[in-house]
Amino acid sequence: MPALDPSASRRRFLKFLAGSPLLAWPGAAGLAHEAPSRLPDPMVWAPRDMGELIKSPQDAINVFDFEPVAYKNVPPAHFGYMASGIDDEVTLRENREAFNRLVLRPRRLVDVTNIDPSVELFGVKWETPIIIAPTGGNRAFHEDGELAVARAAKARRNLQILSTAASTSVDDVTRERGAPIWFQLYASPSWDVAKALVKRAEAAGCPVVALTVDRVAGRNQETFFRLRRVDRRECNDCHALGVRTRPNYEGIDLSGLKSMLSSNLTWDFVRRLKDATRMKVVLKGILTGEDAKLSVDNGVDGIIVSNHGGRGEDSGGATIDALPGIVQVVGGRIPVLVDGGFRRGTDVLKALALGANGICIGRPYLWGLGAFGQAGVERVLELMRAEFEVAMRQCGVRSVKELSPAFVRKA
Fold first, then answer.
1. How far apart are CA 314 and CA 68, in angstroms?
2. Residue ranges of the alpha helices (H) in 129-286?
3. Helical H runs in 248-314?
4. Which residues of 61-85 are buried (b: 16+ CB within 10 A; e: fewer)?
5. What gap in Å lies between CA 84 and CA 347, rounded to an integer?
6. With contact defined as beta carbons under 8 Å apart, do 128 and 158 qualify?
7. Domain boundaries, the chain
């Protein structure tokens, strides 16, 4: 064969690239002037184009497709409040990045034609371990707010936890859901206020109260503050009294409270709460084995391993990393749920393999809500469930009960 002329070959290669769809890839800028040492691996065939957002929920390929649509639809300050972590947002990022340090260990030659993704919590069977986490003020993202989320939960048969700071009352959301929901409690510094909220949730038929224990101080929500600066609306009329005007506080005397933060919570409060209600009491915000042990010792019925989605403190620790130690201490005596950074079905499977009894999602369903209302929330729940069931089959798992730490290893 004749010897190759490097200069001629390079010119022919660049001529080929000039008419190639590769140039649509953002990282290909400049290829026509200088040949790369190697082509990207993997190739990026379908980069997200902010000018080509999905037009309907069914166009979504994954839950991330909803976020830019929500960003477009939702006022900047509202979107910023939801998207924000605190300080450097190390914890916010770590909740996601920690999943990449866990590798699945799939088993082969298992008949997974039929699988059972269901879980049981406090005697109730749920078709999926994916739970709707409590998030405040959903009407900030869509006019139907928590009612749209409740309808989506009903359609997809997911457990829903409602925030004290919801923009719709626990009674109305329960009615829309058509089934009992759990109630998340911000206790406030006042026992009388906490007791009144608990009685309201109990009267609405809630079987479980999830007491948040990690909101005891202020926070520097930098993303929220920056986006609020570009919001041209007059917000003071709506936000002058903050969460005090939310429906779940209706009829409750808040006049003596200078702050709504539960800075005075102790284990005595937890025991008092247990004595004051027939509902199961779950603690949301536990991150250490020491507090997990104290939870069991003090008669708590369940734990949610949570760092408030990176909105409590910027400790830098991911919930999925805290989970195994807490599961070990609890030893199966009470259910352990976990939230923080769940975006993929494989994330769900990793958490369940490490011992979680269920997982909670927050931001993804708010993206769906802000993008398309109820239909968006439904699609988010559908995508995550579908991915989880695929992950089960690929790992050779026929039932959630078959999962164990043997299915996961550190990368």
1. 25
2. 145-156, 170-177, 191-203, 222-229, 236-239, 267-276
3. 267-276, 289-297
4. eebebbbbbbbebbbbbbbbbbbbb
5. 21
6. yes
7. 6-47, 59-410
| CA gap 253, 191 in Å, rounded | 12
Confidence of residue 26 (pLDDT cuts 50, 70, 90): very low
pLDDT of 25 reads: 43
Rounded to 5 degrees, what are φ and ψ at 367? -60, -45
What pLDDT, on a 0 to 100 scale, did the predictor assign at position 289?
98
> Cα separation of 52 and 323, whole Å?
38
Angle ∠(403,404,410) on CA atoms, nearest 5: 120
**Active site (catalytic) residues:** 308
pLDDT of residue 21: 46
Q: Who's near 68: CB < 8 A, 6+ residues apart?
A: 48, 50, 53
pLDDT digits (tens, 9 = 90+) for 199-249: 999 999 999 999 999 999 999 999 999 998 999 887 776 666 577 889 999
The pTM (predicted TM-score) of the whole model is: 0.89
CATH number of 59-410: 3.20.20.70
Please provide residue 279's backbone torsions phi and psi, each rounded to the nearest 5 degrees: -70, 155
What is the percentage of the chain residues whose pLDDT exceeds 70?
Answer: 88
Q: Per-residue pLDDT averaged across 255-280, rounded?
A: 95
CB 181 within 8 A of CB 256: no
The 8-class DSSP code of residue 399 comes to B
